[in-house]
Design a protein that fits this description.
This is EF-hand domain-containing protein. This protein is mostly helical. The protein contains 5 helices and no strands.
Length: 119
């Protein structure tokens, strides 16, 4: 079942990128992050992922699958995903999108973080 979810995701992300453009795709990824994050800590924890995963259609994932997702995206080893780690993980899960839009991603991320740092 988890493989099906991954395949569905991989098919949808390039389509979303084409439809929304770089800025729109980053906005949607940020919205997804906010849905899954622990509101008090501002990161995605195992507990927040487990309790909020149904919002994104992931309610059938087992605990070990959720932990595997966290470990795969946890670049700094703190046991949680911050917004950047989440976005990087989403793009890593879609190799087709990475091949097609690596430059678009870089531009959109620079713009997003520049916008957030001036607020």
């Amino acid at each position: 079942m988890a493989g099906t979810k991954t395949n569905d995701f991989q098919d949808m992300l390039p389509m979303m990128a084409n439809k929304l453009g770089g800025d729109g795709l980053i906005r949607e990824l940020c919205n997804g992050f906010k849905l899954l994050m622990d509101k008090e800590r501002g990161v995605i924890t195992f507990e927040s992922l487990k309790s909020n995963s149904a919002l994104l259609g992931l309610q059938n994932l087992r605990d070990d699958e959720l932990m595997s997702m966290l470990r795969e995206g946890d670049l700094n080893g703190d046991g949680a995903l911050d917004q950047m780690e989440f976005c990087v993980l989403m793009f890593r899960l879609s190799p087709e999108l990475m091949e097609e839009s690596e430059d678009l991603l870089e531009i959109a991320l620079q713009h997003e973080f520049k916008t957030n740092s001036t607020r």
